[in-house]
Fold this protein.
Amino acid sequence: MCGIIGYTGNRNATPILLSGLKSLEYRGYDSAGIYLPAVGVCKAVGPVENLVEHIDVKKWKGTSGIAHTRWATHGPPTEVNAHPHSDERGTVWIVHNGIIENNDALREGLLARGIEFRSDTDTEVLAKLIGIHYQSDLYKAVNQTLRLVRGTYGLVVTSHECPDTLLVASLGSPIVIGIGNKEHFVASDPSALLPYTKDVVYLEDGEIAIVKPESYQVFNKKGEESKKTSTLLDWSVNEVQKDGFDHFMLKEIHEAPAVIEQTLRGRLLPEIGRSKLGGIDSLIGDLVNIKHMTIVGCGSAYYAGLLGKYMLEECASLPVTVEISSESRCQLMREDSLNALLVVSQSGETADTLSALRRGKEAGMLTLGIVNVVGSTIAREVRAGVYNHAGPEIAVASTKAFLSQLTVFALLSLFIAREKGMSLSEGQIMAKELATLPEKASKVLEQADHIKSIAEMYSKATSMFFLGRLYHTPVAYEGALKVKEVAYVRAEGYPAGELKHGPIALLDEMVPVIALAPKDETYQKMCSSIKEVTARKAPVIAVTQQNDREVSSLSSAVIEIPETIPLLQPILSSIPLQLFAYYSGISRGLNVDRPRNLAKSVTVE
Ligand code: M6R
């Protein structure tokens, strides 16, 4: 939430900061602002584009600066509340991502000293405090201020008295320093730095860095200098561009075959029916012995975990509980070393998931992660993990990362299962099927136009149901979440068998029902559920396998997907639902990449 970018070097900072803001916009788009010590400040309500319109590039010249795109927490999205914020004298300027929990108390203290506030934000409180402590040493002022603060921050501070210096601090909100040639960058997300550098250093919690064009120094909580090792990003610039697609979401859905392939690359051994997961290989002994696994995640990552449960329980006979990260705390307290905690997160920065992870660590659990962003906080804090290798996901709605999470769960299940007694032939079937998924995913994508026309047909619907059974129940939840997010339609994902226990009361001819009906053990029961739906005149859009007769004869529209083994089928059946959500949003004229009220990385609890 909130995107931060800073630059100090020898080039003009303005285009770097503005293009950085554009690539960070998915983190928040309520307002944006920029400060260059050499020029001044400019802010605008709404997307970054509005800020760009206010900037006269001929006048905005300076070799350092900071900028911010906001997801509002304290105070509405107004120009006054937009960052950067300054101290009383207008000397110190800051941009901030996170929440200052003792904001009210600190604000009252400052008001009692006669300090006036312009905005409602907690960030302005920070700026005023830094200003009070600032004599000539900005590091000292930031350090002293942060000792008074309770909460989370990713923070960049500058002053027109030392214009080429950026003070950068992180606690619970990510900050990354990009290393260039006689220039440095800072950002809340490494994807913003890709056009300039792939060499990055992540700040740990409590660290403060002094960043100048020629150098950067990082200090730990005790004020001692920390020696940092840089990480090389393996993403390319193309991956953060739309590449001819109208939206990132559409591009990312169409990346499905490549993403599954990347997730599998070098990890699958079809001949011996095994998988190889470098990040957790050394832990295989522990994994075989654990008695129980708790999976935590939020949103799509949680739904991926629900399917992961089926895979781990059925393949690896490992009992699994899946919890929404923000709900999981009490249960975690009773866990111990025979229990593993597996956290799932695309961004690796989700505050609720991070907090669950930390509780699990405190309780002595073996902590594992399935994370997409290399070097992110969760990736650094788990004992071991598996990277998705899905590449950067820019659209707010998760699509390709969800598919790669499911793929990692399949690899992980195979990995543990074969050690625990899954037979060679069963392993080979699973591994060989996994290897066919990229090609089968391409076949699903060939139906994009057909799915578009179905979405357009129901573009007036204000309510929808997504139904599935067993492995397809999480797919139904995820399909409904996508439609809520990008089409603003009230959509409910439901286990089909539960429909008759209440929600069926909501069905009529105006409520389309998307029914997931693969030809597995649930098929006949799904046919019965579909009949219950059509008896209430609700139109059914069925997702089923090729050459199906029964479901097709009952449905208003049919999307056919290639067949694979039942546990892997959800990887394929999720793709048409992503396309359906995308086209549902488009047919309603919505900004699918940046849905209202949402942010890509939710770094507040
Ligand atoms: O980065 P994470 O995977 O931890 O994010 C979790 C959720 O916030 C995320 O999946 C969210 O639900 C998406 N917007 C879903 O499309």
About this structure: Residues 298-301, 345-347, 350, 353, 396-398, 481, 485, 601-602 surround 5-amino-5-deoxy-1-O-phosphono-D-mannitol (CB under 6 Å). The longest helix spans residues 424-445.
